[in-house]
From TrEMBL:
Source organism: Idiomarina seosinensis
Alphabetical UniProt keywords: Hydrolase
Protein name: Hydrolase
Domain of life: Bacteria
Annotated PANTHER family: HYDROLASE, ISOCHORISMATASE DOMAIN-CONTAINING PROTEIN 2
Matches recorded under Pfam families: Isochorismatase
Length: 181
């Protein structure tokens, strides 16, 4: 199954300041997250951000500041955002059945949120280059577990090109000039 821009929502899970220094390959992860987020915004996809206990873990990383301004941010205390009533309410407002999930940490909040979304009937897509954990083995194991539970493992470029659907449009030309480098 392919992603559809009309049916998709982008979810950024806990990409927070105090988590970032410990994340393996953090620069690559945040760069790809920003890249895909900017494309989602250019295509008018809704962007939803969660922050786990922001008073303790800080707020979403400055690298994503422009994204925050166009997104809805929901604070949470549960590892799975799906256990937060406020998150569920915001999610349901969008009426989208495809959710692209990225963020930190892959094996904790990202995995638990994605698995519960999948269990509730959402089509869940995880761009493997847009998630991070402190240890590579935790990330790899979480991705394998998510795949085994029906989450679609993709890359950020796969998401972008599936959302775009074709070349030759004004949108494609604009995005290819600015983001497909």
């Amino acid at each position: 199954m392919l992603l559809s821009a009309e049916n998709s929502l982008l979810l950024i899970v806990d990409a927070q300041e105090k988590l970032l220094p410990a994340i393996h390959q953090r620069d690559n992860v945040t760069s790809r997250m920003r890249w895909l987020s900017e494309i989602a915004l250019q295509l008018s996809l809704p962007v939803l951000i969660t922050e786990q206990n922001p008073k303790g873990l800080g707020y979403t990383v400055p690298n994503l500041q422009e994204i925050i301004e166009s997104a809805r941010v929901v604070e949470k205390t549960h590892f799975s955002a799906m256990k937060e009533e406020s998150f569920r309410e915001v999610l349901s407002e969008y009426n989208k059945n495809q959710v692209v999930v990225m963020g930190m940490e892959t094996h904790v909040c990202v995995m638990q949120t994605a698995m519960e979304m999948k269990a509730e009937g959402y089509q869940v897509f995880l761009p493997s280059d847009c998630v991070g954990s402190r240890r590579p083995n935790d990330k790899e194991t979480a991705i394998e577990r998510l795949r085994n539970n029906g989450v679609h493992i993709i890359t950020s470029e796969m998401a972008a090109f599936e959302w775009l659907e074709k070349s030759g449009t004004d949108t494609f030309r604009h995005i290819s000039r600015n983001w497909l480098k």
